[in-house]
Every structure is written in structure tokens, then in C-alpha cells.
Fold:
Amino acid sequence: MAPRRISNSTMGKPSITITTAKAIINSEYTLIKSHSKYKLPTHFEKLDAGSTKGRTTVVKIFYRRFVRLKPFVSNVKMVRQTYSDYLRYKFTKEDYELKRYLVFNPNGLQSKTSPEPMGNTKGGEKVMPMEEVQKTLQFILKSCSYLPETKEQKWSIARDNTYCRQILKNILTMQYEKYRSVLNRGVGHDELDVKFSHLRTKSSPPTKLNKGDKKKIPVFKIFSDFDTTLVHLNESLGTRL
Amino acid sequence: MGLAESLYQKLLINVPKKGVKVGCNRHIKHVSPIVTNFEKWSDKRKKLYFKDEKEMMEKNNLGNFDLENNVYGRLLASPMRAEKISKLKSCRELLIPLKVIPMVGNDQHAENSMLKLAPILDYSKPYKSSYILNSASIVRDNLAAATSWFPLSILQGSASRKLVVNTATFLSEYDVQLRELIISRLSEIKSVGPSSKDSVLLIYNETSTIPIEVQRVKGADGLEFTQSIFNLGCLQTFASEPMINKDVIKEGIYLDANNDKDLIKHLYRFVLFSLG
Structure:
């Protein structure tokens, strides 16, 4: 049930490891041993995401797992809050196809032709990009994982996990910066997260700008560089961060 | 413990059968609840534990994204730094680093009192640095306020020092550095085949308006891999001063994700710099 092991490390300060049924706790981390709550269920393959009912089930399965990972994202309450807000935004509001379209067709909307259909809608209803969400779950799982590395034993995948963690951390920081600009800089939530104005102005500097709009240009540039790179990353990994 | 066992025993949980092993082969029959569910209130950072690489990759199907060789991954993973024009934070590699150089003037007394701010290509430690966003047009519009781009420690600390930014050459200095680096790297490049993973294909196509594309390509072995296409033809600045023979580049040059890491990163930054 609950064996407790106290070991003094030979180097420097003593470290205490406490092992319980579900976790290993050392001086730095709480390491959870069971992963079943965070992985996709075994019957997942059989679910049909094509029908409306099946789609709802699948979306809920994914959403629950992402939310369960919240305590792993950070120990800071504010960061956890940003994470769950970002999740809710990604699942409910974001028009990712539009964002993607704007990144890859910087002049597309100027020519006044309507965006090409992405092949991702079915009868007016969005189809769940299953593979991409699955990859994204893998990405978040990797960023929350721990491998017991020693000086002799290193794994290359641990480096990759560190990259995942840093990228996730930066995405959340950027999201927080967006909230801050909505509050302090008069840049609307609508402009950044719904219409993606920062991605539209890239190649076409609007000539007649009032003072308020001029101030927005540097803010838009920071967000557009980040979002553009993020969409490129998503394309190359097959994720949807 | 000085207390009689009957006083605290009710607080403990009975452990069935053999009891719990505590260190030096001692077994006890009662355990404090603090220890049984300790993960709930340990207050340490939570992580998912995997025994080794095999458990992670095979049992849990968490593959390697190879982000080290992915230009976008590396850019987005770089630490966040404050940007001076928009006053926002962004990834260090997406910004232009600036360094502070003490200027040696003709006047002996002035020797230590002048500080110059200049753009560099890569962040380097010995200098105090600050960062501005990576866009030619926005930097040009804001050059009038360039002295406020000095690192905060210098702005607050050195009232007696004169702060100088050479606004006339500031942008071209950065542009020239970037171009020179790209040209010199391109001249020694060994073009790799199209099958290398995460590779970048450099092309020059004036008819296309898309500067960067990411495609999934099928390799000779039938496996799919992603490939980025950087189109230098979109950049107007490029046309006036070609970096490399257009005929060579028309065919396309393949850059290796691993060996040409640095070049790929600078090319991407060059695209963002010229477009912005």
C-alpha cells in the first residue's frame, strides 16, 4: 500500500523519495505512474466520428483528456487558467481553417475570391480532424512526461519532450500576452482570435490609418510571426496546437 | 515518539496482512494517511512517469517528433524575451537581437561615455542585449525612438553616458549581415536529395505569392515526409540584389534539416524580416 523509502543521495543535499500506490514523489516532482486516465480508451478505434452523435462522443473524449492534463501543465494557477481558457477556445470558437488559409495565402483575401473549400466540412457541419487532435494529445502528453535519466543513461526522446514542453509553455505565454493586449492596448479579442486581423495585414500595409491603428501594427507583427510559425509547425507535425 | 500509542492510533490507517515495509526491514502495521495519498498534497510539480524510452514509445505510442531538426519547433521553443517596440513578449529567435558596444571616440574623456546599439544576427552572451521585432518596415517607421531600445539596465543606470544609435545605417547593417551570412552558407552548400526528413527546398518563383509552404511528399521508399518550400521570389528586395544565381536556384536547392540548421533558420528570419 504505502511503502516509504527515505534515501540519502551521496551527492550534496539529501533527497527523499516517497512511493505511494499511485505515484513516486521526490524532492522535485510528483511522478504519476498510471497513465490510463490520460490515454485514449481502448474502444476508441471503434467509435464512428462521422455521425453527429459519434462526433460529440469523440470530442468529449478528447476534451476530457486535455482537461485532465491541466494539473501537469504548471503549478502556477494563472498558467493553468490560461491553459483551460485556450482549450475552450480551441474546441469551441477557433476557425482553424481560416487561420491556416490566411497563413498560406497572404494575398488570397485581397483578390476577393472566396476561400477555397478545405474539404473539411460536411453538410455545413465541421468534421473532427481526428488524427490531428490525436497528435496534439500526444504532444501535450509528451510535454508533461518524465523519464528517469541518469548521467549514463540518456534518451533522445527526452530532448524531444523538452522541446514539446518549451513550445507549450511559449504558446501559453503568447496567449496570455494576447489577453493583456486586449485589456491594455485596445486590440480586440475579436481581431486576434476570431478574425485574425494580425494575419491579414501582413502583406498589405493599409495606407490610411488613424493613430490608434498605427499603434496596433507592431503588436500585430509579434502575434502574426508567432502564429504563422505555429501553423507551419502544425503542418509539419500534423498537430493542431 | 513520546506519546502513548493509544492517543494517536485512531489517526492512522490499518494496513492489512503483513504491514508496510519501512526502511531497514522494519514492518509497521499502521500508516499515516499523509503517506498513503501523498501525491495529492505533495505540492510538487506533477509529471507523468515513464520507466524508459521503450515504455514511452512502444507501449504508449508516443513517438519522437524530431523537433530538434524542425526549424519551426526550434524557433518556437526558444525562450521568451521582451520586445522593445510593441512591449510584448515573443520568442527570442523570432526577434532581432541588439547589442550594446562601448564606442572608442577620438576624445579621451569621451571614451567610456558613449554607448552604441547595433543589431546582430545571433544572441551572444558577453553583450548586454535587448530585442526588437523582426520587420524591416516597422523598424524603419520607429527609428526615431531608437534610443529607447537600449536594455533597461543601461537606460536606468547610465545617465552620464551618451547613448547612440546610428539610424541611417541601422537597418542596412542588419540586412547586410543577414545577406552575407546566407550567401556564404549557400555557396558551400551540398544539395541533399529530396528524401531527407524535414528538409527545406529553396526556390525562386516570381509568379507565386506564397513565401513559405509546407508539403507532404512521398519519398522513394514510399514513406511520407514533410518538406518546407521557401520561395525567395516573393521578396521584392531579393530581386534587386540577387543572393545566388537565379538559374541555379530555379531548379531548387535542397537544404538538410540537420546540417544546414543555421542557414534554414536565418532564411526563415530573412523572409519574416522582408515581408513584415
In short: The mean pLDDT of chain A is 83. Strands of chain A lie at 4-5, 17-19, 23-25, 29-32, 121-122, 125-126, 145-146. The radius of gyration of chain A is 22 Å. Chain A has two domains: 1-34, 35-237.
